[in-house]
Amino acid sequence: MTTALGLVAGVLTTASWLPQLRRSWRTRSTDDLAWSYLVMLSAGVGLWLTYGVAVADVAVVAANAVTLAALGALIALKGVGRGREEAAR
What we know:
Layout: H1 2-15, H2 17-27, H3 35-55, H4 58-88
Helix pairs in contact: 1-4, 2-4, 3-4
């Protein structure tokens, strides 16, 4: 029961990233996302992932692995957008 609760919580918190990722992909704009926010959140999620692996908690590992992948996609989109801005100058 505890693992099921953790998996549901993980699905909900991880799915919360999908609208932002979809919007950023569609508009190709990540201007409203600060680099410091993305870096600090990614570091925290990475540490939660490491913790989940250390304690062998499948819910923590799954949720944080998917969230880290979504953050990686947002960081990549932000990096591409930055490159386009510099090229336009």
